[in-house]
Structures are given as C-alpha cells and as structure tokens.
## 1
Amino acid sequence: MIEIIDLYKSFGRKEVLRGVNLFIEKGESMVIIGGSGSGKSVLLKHIIGLLRPDKGSVFIEGLDITKLNEKNLYKVRKKFGMLFQGAALFDSLKVWENVSFFLMRHRGISEKKAREIAKEKLRLVGLVGVEDLMPSELSGGMRKRVGLARAIAHDPEILLYDEPTTGLDPIMADAINDLIIDLKKKLNVTSVAITHDMHSAYKIGDKIAMLYEGKIIEVGTPEEIKNSSNPIVHQFITGSAKGPIKVEGVTNG
Amino acid sequence: MIKSGIERLGRLTSLFILEAGGIVLFSLKTIRQLFSIPVDIRLVIHQMLSIGVRSFPVVFITSIFTGMVLALQTYTGFKRFGAETMVGSVVALSMTRELGPVLTGLIVTGRAGAAIAAEIGTMRVTEQIDALETLATNPLKYLVIPRFLAGLLMLPSLTVLSDIIGINGGYIVSTGIYKMSASLYWRKVWDYLELSDFYNGLIKAAFFGASMALICSYKGFYTEGGAEGVGRATTQAVVLTSMTILVSDYFLSAWLF
C-alpha cells in the first residue's frame, strides 16, 4: 500500500532523512515515533507529496508519487485525508464549510447536500451543533475533531495524523485516540500517525516504527517495541534523559 | 573594511536577484493557473470587496486633500508669475498622470497589501496552505489568483475615482478660497487634459495593482518562523511593493507618455 524506499532529504546543510525504508500494509495502522526534530513531520509530508525528496521513492499503491507532475499528484492526494497538528482549519470558513471543503470543490455537490454530509461527519467525531461556528470559536480538542471530520469527509483510503494528541489534556487526548481507533474500524482505512506520545502510540498502532537520526531503526508491534533490546528504543519509550540519545544542548555528566 | 563593504554589497546584490527571481517565478506560476479550468468568481468578488471597495474611504480622503493642496500650492506659486489661472490644468494633469495611480497604489498597498501578506503568511505558518494541498486544491489558484485579479481590476477603478475626487478637491480650493470662477477652473481642466493622460494613468494603476497582489502574496506564501515571521513578511511586502511602485512608475511614465 505505502512503500518508502531509501528516502533522503536535507534542508540546507541539515540532513533530516538519511535513507528511510518503511512498508505499510493496506488497512494497517502504523505509528512513527521519534524525538522532536527527528524528521517525523518531514517523513509524513513526503508520504502525501507536500515535500519532494532529494533521493528515494514513495510508492502509493504501486505508484511512485515522487515522480508525478503536479496534476497527477493532486489526483493521488484525493485518496488521502490528513489531520494536522494544529488542525489547520481555514479560519475564514465556517466549520461546515471546512468539513465539506473537498466535496464542494471536487465533487460539485450542492450547498445543502454538503451541509448534510458535514453534519453527519461531525457527528461521527462526536460534535453536534457546531456547523455554523467559526474555527476561532472552538477549543483545541474541538478543532482537532473538526480537522478529523474534514480529513474523512471524502472517504479517503489513507489517513495521516500529525501528532494527533499533542497540545491536548490527557482525557481529551485519550478521547482522540479512541476516535482514531473507532474510525479505523468503521472506515477500514490505512493510517499513518506520527507522535512522541507513547501512550497514544501503543493504543492506536498495529505497528510502531522508530525514526532516529534520519533512519527507521526498528519496526514492530507495540509488544515487540516494549520489549525491544535496542538501547535507543528502550531509552525513548521509557522517556529517560540518560542513555545513547543525547538531549540537544544538554550534556550528560 | 573595504573588503567587508564589497562583501556586503555582493550579498545584497545576490539577495536582490534571488528575491526578484523568486517573485517573477511565483508570478509566472500564478498566471499559468489562470488558464487552468474555471476561476472561482465568488472568491474574486470577495477579494474585490476587501481590496477595492473597502479601500475607498482612505482613497477618498487622500485624493481630496491631495487635490486641495495641489490647488493651494499651484495657485500661490503660479501667482508669482501671473499664471494662477492654470490651476485647473495642473491639478487635472497631476492627478490623472501621476498622483491618482501612485497614491492609490501606495495606499492600497498599506491597507490591502499588508493584509494579503499577513493573511497568507498566517495560513502558511499554521499549515493551512499545506491543508489546501492535502485537499487537492492548488493554493495559487485558491488564494493568489483571486487577489491578483482583484488587484488588477480594482486599482484602476479606484484610480478613476481618485482622479475625479482630486480634481474636485482642487475645484473646492480654487473657487472657495481663491474665488476663481467655476467655469474658468473647468475650462482649464478640459483645455489641456487628453484622454491618453487618463487611460495611461489607468494602465499604470493596473500594473501597480497586479504587482501589489503578487509581491504581497509571494511574501506571505514563503513566510517562515511563526508570528514573528508573519510580521517580517508583512513589513517586507509593504516596503518591497512601495518601492516597486515608485521605481516602476518612473519607467512606465517614460514609456507611456
């Protein structure tokens, strides 16, 4: 379904991805973990073609999207839905217009029908009666839910989550986790999430991959990752400042 | 000392060339989007309102006072050599050929151009532009084209109004304060004003409008670094557009008139 082969990307002199290889099966839920600044977001943005790699390929259902021209890339993107870290709702549009944005622009459905679909998708993420609000009137958790409703509005085959629980209180974060699991069951999508929240990773992932120094250093089920013998993985999942991973700007004495 | 001066000059030059190249490429990419399938008219109208219609009050105040001060200065100055009857001609020619388009361009840049850069810049740093991409929508087509068309159409429209308002401002001062006869003022306006003065001014205005929309969108589009970055992009957009208007005004005037 999604196959990433030998992906390299640098920004100026900073090498962010240094040969990433990852395979994600259809219907699987993959969680990519890694520290802040490890390039998780950069990797995610390559999967949907928001960034082009310096080297390497990203295959979506057998099609190398790094070689596509703009027009064909937009076609492939119609298979995707993405939830952004800050939800990235369009502030100038009402909630329902945000949710039905894709449908109105690409399926040419009427405003009335778009509203209905938006309402239905919002109910699916647990929101009722917010259609006519502006994004600025919503709380952080609600914004994420609306972002999620927007991401699933066009029934995508692949869902991408950029730090779905970051910035939420623990209860709201868990509610979002449940929602992600629930959506996966109902919609039967392939999903890729990036996070550094281990609780969330164990909960929503069928598999977990760890990105470190621009490479995937370990892939496994949550159980396998928990029992990993790799000291880097072990340090990360237990959240210790001491170990082979150096905390930037801090010297371990 | 000399070396560092030369170094700095070199750096500035290469920065300038990079920026100019960036803007030209961005403009070409945007204009290419004009030819791909329908342009969303509702978005264009929305921008025409925000760039054009809502700029009218400031354009009105600026133009009327510009016309008034022109009449004031011309009358008192020209009186020294007995040419004070020429006020109408001076006001009309100055407004249509020069001040109407340039002042309107600068004011709309300060008002709407800053808003364009800030809005698109905020959308960039909050990932709304990425979100557009993931929803299979070309951000140039969705965000920049409507602003470009609105700038291109509304600047000349505002300039027509500015010309008329400015000439009337001159009329108020000439007849009200200097007791010139109304018919003399208008005769002098029409005696020397040619249609080409008027529409060449509008060509300049259209150029300023398009440049304003493209430069400010460009600055917003490539914003980096959060709220501070948006502030920086907005300032740079206004400064760069104002300079472009003033510099290109000279060359356009030399070419058109």
## 2
Amino acid sequence: MQRISILLLVLVVCFATAMQAQAPAPKPDPALKKLHVLVGHWTEEGEYKPGPLGPGGKTTGVYTAQMILGGFFMQAEETEKGAMGETRSLEVYAYDPVNKNLTCNVYMSDGSTFSGVVTVSGNTLTWAGKSTVAGKQYLFRQPMIFAPDLMTATAKGEISVDGKTWTPFFEVEYTKAKPAPKK
Amino acid sequence: MQRISILLFLSVFCFAMAMQAQAPAPKPDPELKKLHVFVGHWTYEGEAKPGPLGPGGKFAGEYDGQMILGGFFFQGRWTEKGPTGETGGLEIDWYDPVNKNLVGNCYLSEGNRLPWVFTLAGNTYTFVGKFVTAGKQYQYKGTFTFAPGLASATLMEEISVDSKTWTPWRESQWTKSQPAPNK
C-alpha cells in the first residue's frame, strides 16, 4: 500500500512538473494592438505655450515607435528641438492586467518623468497621468486625434496643478513617414 | 501713469521670460551615481528553484547597463537563456525627487512590468517591487551584493505572496567584463 502511495506521489509530481514545463507561453494582451497606430517613424512640428514649464516657442522633432520584448511592450524614442534646446525622451507602454488598462512611462533628458494611462476612443488616444518636472508634480493630459488614414495626428497637451484648471501646454502635428514605394 | 504701468509690466514680463530662458539646465541628482556601479557589460549564470514561476533550472545571460538621457536615467538591457527558453528585459531606473529615493521600472519579455524601489547599504543593493504573472500578484526582492572590487556580484532573488514569507527563487553570479587592454 505504501509503495503504491509513493508511486502515485511520484507520478503526480512528474505530471505537475511536465505540465508546468509545457505551460503555453504567455501572449501579449490584445489591448496592446491599440498602440500599433503609433508604431513607425513620425516627424512633428508644433508650439509650446509659455508657462511654468518653460518660455514656449516652436518645436520640431522626430518620433519612432516599435513593439519590443515579444510584443508585450511598445518603446518610443522622441527628439525635439525648440526654444529650450534639444530634448530627448524614451517612452515605454505596457498592458496592466490588474487594472486592465494601457500604461505609459516617459523618461526625459531634462530629468522629468510621466506616469499614466492611455485610453483609446475611436481615432483618439488620450494620455492622462502625472508628470514630475524639477521636483514638482503636475497633472498632464493629452488627446491625440488621428486623421482617418492614420498617417497624421494632432496632439494637444495640457497641464494642471489641481485637476480642475487646465492650462494649454503644447500643440503638435505629427506626420507618419510613408513606406518607400515598391519597385 | 497708465503708460508707466504698462511699461513696468512689460519690463517685468520680459525679465521673467529672460530669466526663465536662462534658467540653468537641470543636473542629475548625485544619488544617481550610486547606480554607476551597474554600468558596463556583465555576464551572469545561475539557477532558478522550481516553484510557481517555473520549473527551475540553470540559466545564463548577458546584461548591458548605461546611463542615458543626459545621465538622468540608468538603462539596463539583457538577454538570457534558461529552462523556459530565451528571455530578456529592459530596466529603467531614476531618482524620484518627490519621494527622494531611487526607483525603477523593469519590463520583462514574459510580459510583466515590475516597478521597484532601491535601498542601499554598503555594497548591497536591494530592490523591492511587485509584479503580476498568470493573473497572480507576487512581491519581488532582489539583493545584489558586490564583491570589494565591484567587478563581480551575487544576485539573490526571492518572491512572496504576502511580503512576510519570502521564498528563494533565483541565485546568480555576475561578472563584469574587463575593458580590452590598450595595445
């Protein structure tokens, strides 16, 4: 009887281990596909408004986004030139399975950061969250409205310190680089 | 009188704008220097214990650390071969001026994002965070202990479901690549 129990235990352990080893590899959540509209190379031009975050002025830049790490995340790199000189940023997007939403973290070359969520409604992606600039926290929101062909978009950023009064921060037009025509 | 007021207002406004435009560029917080010990190319090998996160087994990988975005952030990227195949990740760490500590986000090719907080004591770096895998949340604790020369280290990784009882998960030995000798 004891032998049968041991044999049974060994079989169960082997089966459990085998099942664990054969567990299907996790797949990116389908919600991440909503970010694919950003993937590619974009040029941008726009204007920052004078305010607590700088003197404002015209800006131009480039933005490149790609899916990384097996498609579980999107990474974007942006370089902007404007009144404050050149700024660069790295953005990483993820799907949060607990809150069931898309998250975004932005790391900028002036040391500022953004942490928030991205929601999608029709042709509009909206960023909402907190920015930390020079040790001070601001609320930030930015709807980005895509044209029907998804090759151009307009983003309008706003900031707030209390979540009630919102101040325009920037307005930028994005144009996606067209793929080279086939020969 | 009205003319003087307008002139005064314009002077003050122009002065404020000029001051803002000439504001000294922000500098990375000195705390970030504590992360410089991770900069460079590392190789590592170790063993994972069988448990809820996988079947266990030996693994080996390569890790590249560098300061990015003007030195305000540390970026680590790695690839690893282990019992579940090839995996990789991206790590971004920075100084949080609001909470006055070193924090980071770790993005794993298994689809998890692991935000963490660093604590340092001598040659020991501990990073604690949370991640979700297969719908279940785990606490994570990594303890990185450097050898006196800072060219090798041991990483002990533990997991917990309640932050009280910690289970050993992985243990690995890290070696920093020596720069090529001058010819």
## 3
Amino acid sequence: MTWWPERHHWRGRAVTAVAALAAAGLAAAGCGSSGGGSASKQVSASAKQTIVFASQGLGGEGTASKAAVAAFEKANPNIKVNILNLSPVSDVALQQLQQRFISGASTPDVVTTDVVWPATFARPGWIQNLAKFHPDTSAFYPAQMQSGTYKGQVYAIPWFINAEGLYYRKDLVKTPPTTVQQLVSDAKSAMSRDPKLKEGFAFEGDKYEGAVTAMQSFGGQVGLSNLNNINTPANQAALKFMADAIHTYKIAPSAVSTWEEAQVQAAWLGGQTPFALNWPYIFALSEANGSAVKGKTGWVPFPNASGSAAQASLGGDDLAINAKSTHQAAAWKFIQYLTSTQAQVARAIAAGDPPSVKSAYTSELLSKAPYFKDEQKVFAVATPRAVSPVYTQVSSQLQTMISSVLSGQQSAQAALSATAPTVKQLQGTASGG
Amino acid sequence: MLARDRRFGYALVAAAVIVLLVITAYPLFYNAWNSLRHDVVTSGIPATWAGLSNYKEIFTDNLFVPSLVRTIGFTVVSVAVETVIGLGLAVALNRAFPGRGLVRAAVFIPWAVPTVVSAQLWKNMFDPQNGFVNYILTELHLPLAHTTWLGQTWTAWGAILVADAWRNTPFIAIVLLAGLQVIPGDIYEAARIDGASAWQAFRRLTLPLLKPALMVAMIFRTLQSFLIFDVVYNMTAGGPGTSTSVLSYLNYQAFFVNFDYGYGGAISIALVVVALLIAAVYTRVFRVEQVL
C-alpha cells in the first residue's frame, strides 16, 4: 500500500484507461457486427494464385479430396489449392465457418457446406450469389439443388448427395417392409428366430442433428413450409413411432436414445440387428471383405409412419464461395471441376460419396460399385430439411423435443404442440430479415 | 527520487494491468454492452438497443431459471461429494506407507486428463450395450445393469456427477494434502499425551488447521462446478430433453447455436453476478474464521 503515495491519482488514471479500452472495444464490436463492403478487387482466373478450400473429411474422403485437388492443379497449373480441414463433427465445422465469416475473412475461398447451411450463410451475405456464373442447375438432383437455393437464387452447388434409408438383412427378411407395422412384425419374427440378434431395429436417437433426420426419414415433415406448424399428423406419427419402437414394440433397445450413426453402424456391421437406419456410406462397408453382413445387405427408403409415400432425409454436402473472396473466378473453376462427371465418379469409387450429378451414375461406376443402383432409389425420394437461415435454431428445438419424447418425459403429441409455437416464432424472425 | 520510483513502479505493474484489462475487463464490458442490445449476428439485421429486455427475457422465458436451479443443485452436490472423498484421499495419502509416491501419482492422474477427453471416456463407459459400467454391473450380478444411463434424467445426472468427480476430486486432494503437510506433527503428539482419540485429533486439530486449504479448494471447485460445461456438452448435450441443461450450456447455445449475442450476454452477466456472490459468501466465511 505504501507503494502508491497518491493512490487516488492512480485510481483516476486506471479508470480512464479502463474506460478508453472499453470504448475502443465497443467501437471494434460495432464495426465487427455491421460488416464491411463486398470483395472488390477480383483476381482473374488465369492469374497465378492460391485458393483455400475448407472441407470436412477424414480417411477415404480426405484422401479423395487431396486426389481431386492434385488433378485440378495439374489441369490448372496457375491455381494452387490449399485444403483447410474442418472438424469432422458437423456442428463444430459449422461454428468454425461461422466464426470465420463473422470476422469477415476473405479465406477460405471455397467452402464445403452441409445441405442445411447455405440459407444460414446466404442471409447475412457471407456466401456469393452464383447467378453471375450461370450454373447448370438441371444436372443435379432437384431436392439437393433446392438446398443451395435461397430466395430463388443459387448460392451453393451440390457436391455429393446423401439420403437416409433403411438397411435390411436379405437373409432374415424376405421382402423389405413397405409399412412400419410390417417392419415391426418382421423385426420381431427375426429376433425370435435368430438368437444372435441383440435388437430388431437400430436408429440414431441421441440429442443431435441425427435425431431430426431420423424423424424425417420416418415420415416427419420438417421442410420450409412446415415450420409454421410442425404439429401435424405426419410428425405425430413419425415421432410416436420413434418412441414406440423403443417403449411399446420393444424392437429397438432404449440405448438408441443415446446412439449416433457410429453406434448404429457398429450394430449393423456386427450383424446384431436385422434393420438399421443409416446413410449410404455403410453400404460400401457392408460389402467389404470380412464384413458380417456381406452379400446380405439391402437398402430401401424407410416406410412412412403416417402411411404416405416413403421419403428419405436428404443429407450431403454443397459447395459455396465466400462472398469476401477475391479469387471467385478460380473458386468457381474449382467447383466446376469437383462437380464434373469424371471427378464425381472418382470420388464415388474412392470414398463411397454418391455423386450429386445425375449423369455420373455411369455404367463404369455401377459396375465397380453395384450398390449405387440401390442407392439411386433412395436418392430419388430424398426430401430436404427446411432451407431456412434459422434452421440450426429450429433443429436445436427439435432435438430437445425428440430427446424428451424418446426418454419418456412427454408424449409425441404433447411435445409437438409445446414446440410448434417456438419453431413458428423462430421462422418468423427469419422471414422478417 | 520518489517520482522516479513511482514511475518505475507503474512500469512494473503495467504489463500485468494491461493483460488483466484485455482478458478480463474487455470481455466483461463487451458482454455487458451486448446484453443491452438485440444482436443476432447471423440475422443480417443491424443490432438495435434493447435496454433491459434481454434480462427480462432470461427471467421469464422458462429456460434460464430452471437451468440456474439445476446448476446450483449440481454445484452443491458435486462439491460436497468431491470434498468428502478428496479429504479422505488426502488424509490417507498423508500417512507413510510403502509405495506412497506411486499411489499419490496414480490418484492425481485423472486431474491431468483434459476434461473433454475424460467426459468422452465416461460417455463410452456409460454406453448401455458396450460400456464398462453395465458390463461390470452384469458380471457382479448387480441391479441397474441394463440402465440407459444418459437416457433418463436422474441416471444422466449420476453419470455426469461420476465423470466430474473422477476428474476433479484429485484437485481437492492435492490442495488438502498440501494443507495437511504444513500441520506440525508435534501437536498430534501433545494431543495423544493428553489422551485424545484419533477421531478427536482429526476433529479438533486436523480440520481447524486445514480450514484455509479447505476454503481454497472449495472456492475453486464451487466456481468451476457452477460453470460446468465440457462434461455436459460431451455426455448429454443438456438432454434428455433439457434435464441436464446447465447455465454454461444454455449460454453456449445462445452464443454458438443461435448467435444471439444479446441474450447470451445477459446470461453471461448473470453468471458473473452469481459467481461474485459465491466468492463473496466464501470470503465472508473465511474472514470470520480468521477472526476466531
């Protein structure tokens, strides 16, 4: 204390310093959220340059991306592509991209975006309206093309498609079920006949995005037009079936309420379930040498719980260009390469990623990987989740709702009627923007 | 001479003061400012002045208050459990026995494991089909062997408590062990000569002399426990439903899912206020002890 004879003097200065710093911080914050102008100085596609490509992907997918980059660089010696690895966890990758966009960074130039993100990125002006490049939208599956379209404008180009469908054991189930009642009875009879089976049906019910896609694959309606009222008979039927599969029919273990795709995959590949809900990547693993279900795997759209026509939750990745990028021409060139038939077939064979380009299902691809023939049937009924800038927030509400129903805290109907107003209100804030 | 000394003094503390301002004052003021605005950064809508409406929202929207209650409940239970076990460990490790160094190291290892890793580990351990917990319960023919631990409210809390205690009890043990080691041995000798039992010695000598260390350990653990995030994020994501949604998780959702900086800022400021209250209560208790 004796150190400062004039303590008040020091205090006064400190207060001034804090105030100045705080003011500076506030000013910076003000600038940060308002955002700057658009990328003005564009580099021509023929100039020597380096672009940054942000992408998820481990293992086979990562290797396939590197191979695609190498092939692109060989064809375009003036453009070098650096890969920025995003987290393999979808929610984390989304946050990584959002934080870069919020900071106004001009890289990455090309971003991989899950099919449910483009609207979120397009509304604040983070990704480039691609109209100036005149993309050929007819080349892709319409459902996925829709995922990259916001307010009638194309912001993202489909890279590879994904859809969730029902895997069934051909040796245990004669014909794939077309109703959920049939699925339940098939599962029960398979369980009574084969003691090696631990359950009749596996799906992902943990509190995360997967629960939403599962509900949609069961016939739930989470499209843009449904957000005004999600408390529909179709959603009640789908959500009720999720809970009933566990608690009433007891074909799914209660553990599925904490399972994600990885656990479902383990159950399926381990041969412990006759039915499993999952994405196409499992097909290649099922048919691999040493798999317990090799040659016994079939894949169909999940029967709709409400009795309507079957639908499959659309997944997959799109490609978009950072609006602040100064290398947009080169970025577009790279996107065109990644969506060329040749690059799509190469990726499908190497990493099992189903092509987003319809013409890429060539005889070459189908002969090397025959299961893509089955997959096309599921992709044909692929249904997008809401292409909404507030989808993440809506989904967070749906995840909590599904989790509460699967754990038996409330009925499907009560949960839907409690969540519907919140979802409607969220969507209202989006249409206002 | 005095002036020069003073200037030198300012120079010496300047670095520390600047660091404190940047990492403490700036975020605090930034959040206070945020909390007074409507600012959803992903909306593309410019931020507007909100007054106190974000605070009004957190106290009326049926998310914040239940989370606060859950967080306080968890804090009380976890700190109590961890302190009792930690104290037991510290007393045991303070005794001389062969291989003590090795045992001490083994006890402290969990604390060296990053929380994210330990939380993920425990999530796998509590997996109903492939997890170690149900395996061992089955092998020992104990009840609850078929529990979906993270699928029900109370079992999920139990799992979170176990994961949290496994990671953090060693911290309490370390601090208390240090406290035990500065207690001179001769007072126990004197107590024994006076005919005190072991329990009496523990009750009348060890505990009072350990109080400063106990306070430090408890203040740290209470604040950390109140701000618990990693375990919940990794193990339950606040589920089932919102049963394990604690304040920090709610705050994370506000900032990183909804990008609602106003609402998130209000939660942050509320967290700071409660944390200050906790610190104030502890300091008060601590002071009273010193006077006595």
## 4
Amino acid sequence: MSESAVDPEEVRHVADLSRVDLDDEEVERFTEQFGEILDAFEALEEVPEVESDADLVNVMRPDETHESLSQEEALQNAPESEDGYFKGPKVS
Amino acid sequence: MSTYNAFVTRETIEGSGEGPLAGKTVAVKDNISTDGVRTTCGSTMLEDYVPPYDATVVERLKAAGATIPGKTNMDEFGMGTTTETSAFGATENPAAEGRVPGGSSGGSAAAVAAGEADLALGTDTGGSIRCPAAFCGVVGIKPTYGLVSRYGLIAYANSLEQIGPIAPSVEEAAELLEVIAGQDDHDATTREAPWASEKRAGDAREQGSFEEEVGSGLGEAADGDVDGLEIGIPTELLDGADEAVVETFWDAIDELEAQGASYHEVSMESLEHAVEAYYVIAMSEASSNLARFDGVRYGPTPEYEGNWNEEFAGVREEGFGEEVKRRILLGTYALSAGYHDKYYKQAQDARAWIKQDFDDALSEADVLASPTMPVPPMKRGESLDDPLTMYLADANTTPVNLANLPAISVPAGETDDGLPVGLQIVGPAFGEKTIIRAGSALA
C-alpha cells in the first residue's frame, strides 16, 4: 500500500501551480503513479546529514556590452509580435 | 532512408573542411542549438523552433572541419531512458532488433551503431549518453561537469548535465571530446582541464602515478595500457542487476585483469539513494527550466481566449508529452511549500554524501567500474506505462552526475541472447585521460 497517498485534488493543484492543463485520464494515471514514485522518494529520509563545503567560486566578468542577437532574430520564433515586442495574452 | 528513425531532421551543415575532424560526419542531438536548422528537443513544443545561433560545441565542430549530417532523435527534453518519449516516434536499436536503443540520446547512439554518422554528440543528465552507448554497443563519454560548454544546450537540469561524444571506438570518442572541451565565456561553469593547460605549456611533469604517465592529447591516452591500473568495484551497483549482465561484466573485468589491471570490491552505501536524489533534483530543476515554454517566445500558437495563466496552461498541455508533464508536476510538488525540506533538501544531502563516497573510493583506486545499465536493452513499448521501473534502470549512471565526475561506457560483450552490455568506468574529476586509457583496453 502506498504511504504517500496522493489524491486527484492534489494532482490538479500541482498541475495548476505548474500551469499545465491535464485531462481526466492523465489526472487518474498521475494520481496512482505519484503515490508510487513519492513512496520511493521517501527513502531519502534515511540519508544522514552531511557536512560538505561546496567547492564553489564566483565567476565574474566585466560589465561591458557585447554583440548579441538582433531584435529581429530574438523575435523570429515568437508566434506573435508587435512593434518589435513579444505579444502575449492579457495578464488578468 | 533509414529504418531506425535515428534522425529528427536530416539537413547537412558543412564545417570549415579543415581540422582534426575533416572528412568526418558528426550527428548532433536535437537539444543542441544549430543556427538556422530546427532544434526540437523531441517535443511538439519546439516542432518549428529554429535557433538564431549555434551552441558553442557546434561552433567547435564546424571549426574542426566536421560535417553535421542532421539532428538526432531523443526522449522529449531528455526525459527518458528509451528514446520512446520523443514526439517524433521511437528509435530502433540497430544492435538489438525489437529492443530500445536506450536514452535519452538514443538517436545519436543508433546513428553511430548503424553507420549513419561516423560520430555523434549526446547529452548526459543522468546517464543519457552512457545508457544508449551501452544498449547500442558503442562508446560514450560523460565528461566531468564543467569540461564542456552548455551554451546553446536547451536546459533540462543544469547542475547535472554535460554534452559528450558517442563513437565506435574509445580513441574516436576521445578525439571528439578533445574538440568540444574547454573553457567558454558563454558558460561560467566551464573550466579548463588541468591536462589541457599542461599540454599547451608543454609541461613535462614528473612521471609516477598511473594518470601522470598518460600522453598529452586525449586521443593519445587511448593506448590500451592498463598495466598497474587499480579498479574499485562498488558492490551496490552489482546488487540487483540482471544475472546475464553481471556475468558479462565479470568477463570484461577478467579481460582487464589479464592485461595487467587488478581490482577490489568496495561498498558505497550512499549509492542506494542515488536514483531518488537524482530524480528529485532533476525534476525540480526541470520544473523551473521548462517554465519558459509558454507559447509567447516559441511554441504552438495560442488562441488568446483566456488570461495569461489559462493560455499558458493550454499551450503546455498541447506542447508537452506525458513524461515531461509528469516531471514538471513532480518537480513542482517537491519544491512546493511544506515539501521542500522533505525532498529537495534531503536530495542535496544525498548528493553530498555520494560525492564523499566517490572521493573515498577513488582514493583507493584509479577508477571504479560497474555495468553501465543493470539490465539489457528493454523490449520496445515495455516500460512506457511504468515510470518508476524506468527510473530505477538509471541506478548505475545517476551517481556519476550527482558527483560531477567523468565516466565512459565501453562495450563489455553480449549476453547469451546476443544483447549488448556496457562497462562503465568512472574516474576522478578531470580524470578523462585515465578513463579513456582504461576503456581503450576493451574498445
């Protein structure tokens, strides 16, 4: 039995957060699969706390202008554009 | 026309004609940007996307004289282990009829195995170069994180992925890696490998350890000399593997032993958590990365009937396949309020633990070896309905990405049923020469 039982409402909520519409069949399948997958992820609870000093350094460069894509090139894959801008649906 | 469906787009891109790759064809995975040639990521979302610039690795291929014969098929956005989640149909395995070619760089491995390209580039986030190389009986290298520029690679999980070579032999894979490797101003995570700067400086170092005796270029490292090589074998990567795979693996180790290598077994407890840690981290990064596909800058044309969020969700329902949706949703879940510490933070701890275990194991061995995949190539259509089983097949490859290390998959032989088995050899960070040298004793 799945300990991390996931219900369809939860799947719909996460889909909403992710901005991905799902059909009813997908919701049904994902509900079952997510329970199983999240159960497997539960095993991470056994992982001990690990002291690690990440071997990271910042990489800086001078703040100078460089050659870049033209506005036309940047817009060439947009389904719609207007006056050199991306065009999207209304925000609310 | 090929029967393997290895290519999404066949369009020739000519190189400079001169250089180390002159006269060679190098197929490029379809998540690597090619100026003026569509780059789909195996997704309906990018079916008509034509990049306005070349990835750094593509610039380097062209400058090295290579000809690119086309863009290869892949699991959608790199999310899969079989190349069956592509919106452009599954790829056949030229080395094992009716079986999957592995994934996600299945088109690249199949193109090389079928002789439709001399060489190919793939990308490896959790095994996506090594798995198809193993399943198709060819060689694949996942470089140390930071060795190869990711500029122009359409991102899936930035902290894990690297572009790398697939080739019929270790020497050819090494030569291709040499061309694409190196620091790039467009990718701040790239570093010049220590061996590259030494090569340029003509620095004659003191001879001593196994690694230091290797010659200057990466291709020259493929000299097949494993005399004195110490191999560590993590027992966790044999437990639970298919019996026929394990048998073939030991045959390959015997062969290396006969050539002067020796081995010992080593326990790395942390590896038992690698798959979970990998999927939590990769899905979390993917949920953020793939937010850019909103139908505004690229993607299917929205109808503009609802508001932004409704349009956005509609475009993404239409443009993404099921595995991509699954990973975006699970990644969003793992990062959402109340679950972040339980999943993401624990996964980062597991990642640090795995790194430490590799450091320890590699202090007692030159390289670590395991079967590349715990199973032989699956039958086509077998794994699509069972995502968890498919994820678990990545048990041996994902630890390497989590630890940022280099690894090579070389053909180890075949099972009694004639199915290809790969041997994975893992080295220390920037230890490419060591794994190339070790692998070249077999292929």
